[in-house]
Amino acid sequence: MKKKTIICRVLSILFCVTILIGASTPEVSATSMYSSSITSESIREKENQIAQAQRDKENLQSGLTDLKALKRELESKRTNLKNYVAELDSALSQIEENIADLERQIGEKEEEIILTQGELEDAQERESAQKDSMVAYIRFVYEVGTPQPLDILLTATSFSDFLNKADYVEKVISYEQMMWQNYKVTREYVELCMKQLELEKDILDQTKVNVEAEQKNLEDLIDQKTRDIISYETDIKTKAQAIKELEEEIQAQEEEISSLEAAIADEKRRILASNGSILTYDNGPFKFPLASYTRISDEYGMRMHPILGVEQFHNGIDFAAPKGTAIYAAYDGKVVAAEYNASMGNYVMIDHGSGLFTIYMHASALYVKKNDIVIRGETIAAVGSTGNSTGNHLHFSVRLNGAYVSPWNYLKE
Q1: CA-CA distances (angstroms) from residue 45 to 9, 25, 154, 277?
Q2: Do 410 and 398 form a contact (C-beta atoms < 8 A)?
Q3: pTM for the structure as a whole
């Protein structure tokens, strides 16, 4: 009786295996369930996809435009508006290309997410079906009992029967191992799909953030370009106005000095008409007009204006010296002006005769007055920075017959 019961249980198990392996259940066949398309190769491929996605995520940040570095690079080209705008437009074009590429990546990533989501759902459905089949199998085995393989083999009535039973036992054991191994592979594949899906969603979110960042970079650079062009044009207008004012200032100086020279010429004509003596320059050497000086800050002749960047004529020599340094009369003569002028500041103009005049500008104090007779080396003023001046210095000019000439022609010591 006991032998018969064991045989019945074995036959029942084998019947179950036969159904699960070879037959179709109402929901899904065992063939489709356990002859799974998910393999070690599929898992390796999925792991490679995840690794590539991770690299894509890491590369996202490095692809963003470094706006600070870009601005530093552009800064060096600001002196030439044409080149600056060309470089800036090139940078704008690159950012626009970055935005277009990121938007393309967003579209591709959304499609990849749909595919990965589908793979995940298929794998989860397969996992669920395998789990249900395993539960059904375990429940069936539990209900009919689970004889040991050795007991089954001992029930063999012949050698042929023994071989048949051994074959069935092997199939049962192989089936159980295959069922468990397939479930493990499917479970691992599901987890990889979930990881890939999460990573792809992270990449999608980061790419969208990058698009916003690049869009902001684009707007920032466009604003910068607008501000710089306006600033450049304003600078040009300001510079043009400053040049105009400088020219007007020089013209005012010229008119004032020419007016003094004309008045002196009229006075000399009047003196000549009355047969009186007039002042005459005897070609003697000038005395250096300063008690001391530190350096020549600006030479006589054509020079580039340090602020306006335009070439202009500098009608004298600028001697840098401390405030209060004594200013000397370069030669004997008559003071024709000792007063304040908005451009020249406190200045002295001396007539040396024969159409020769010396002019001393930007003094802090004047020690002579109009019509004073001065001799070579007499202190007439003190160094300062009055009028249109940016530092303590003496602007020393020489005029001959109504035109400026180089002071070095007369400074012999």
Answers
A1: 43, 32, 47, 115
A2: yes
A3: 0.44
